[in-house]
Amino acid sequence: MRTLFGIGVVVLLGLGLAPAFTFAAPMDGSAPMLCAVNNVTDCPRSGDCERSSAEAAEVPGFVRIDVAKRLLSTVDGARTSPIATFQRNNGRLMLQGMQNERAWAVIVNEQTGQMSATIGEDDGAIIIAGTCIAP
């Protein structure tokens, strides 16, 4: 009897949790994403790259990606940058843009949400690693 009850509970819990996993938005650009910056590396033109923080590198700690609106923005919307091009290839969402004499690129793994980004400017580059979710 206990075994039957235990199986019933597992099945009901499984059915209750299944929609949460089934209806999670994909990270393929079809829904807006929220990305958190985990690691920042600042690379000046001299080539002496150093680990940094989002604050020190003057990049936001969280970024929204909205491919449909072709917009990268801070959570509060105070800073924005247009997405000039985007492409999906081999499970990766790739985005590029330019603004304020800087070029940037972002790659998001559609399965894991892992993000890599670079910001290039005339005096060096910033390399960013992070994680995205599609809430």
CATH top level is Mainly Beta
Radius of gyration computed on alpha carbons = 19 Å
**Beta-strand content bin:** over 45%
CATH fold title = Lipocalin
CATH architecture classification name: Beta Barrel
Secondary-structure blueprint of this entry?
Blueprint: H1 2-22, E1 33-44, E2 50-52, H2 54-57, E3 62-66, E4 71-74, E5 80-82, E6 85-89, E7 92-99, E8 102-109, E9 114-121, E10 124-133
Antiparallel strand pairs: 1-2, 1-3, 1-10, 3-4, 4-5, 6-7, 7-8, 8-9, 9-10
Molecular structure report:
This protein has helices at 2-22, 54-57; strands at 33-44, 50-52, 62-66, 71-74, 80-82, 85-89, 92-99, 102-109, 114-121, 124-133. With 135 residues, the chain is α+β, with helices and mostly antiparallel strands. It has a single domain (2-133), classed as Beta Barrel (Lipocalin). Strands 1, 2, 3, 4, 5, 6, 7, 8, 9 and 10 form a ten-stranded antiparallel β-sheet that branches.
Question: Main attributes?
Answer:
135 residues; alpha+beta; Lipocalin; ten-stranded antiparallel sheet; 19% helix
Task: Write a brief caption for the model.
By secondary structure, the protein is α+β, with helices and mostly antiparallel strands. The protein has helices at residues 2-22, 54-57; strands at residues 33-44, 50-52, 62-66, 71-74, 80-82, 85-89, 92-99, 102-109, 114-121, 124-133.
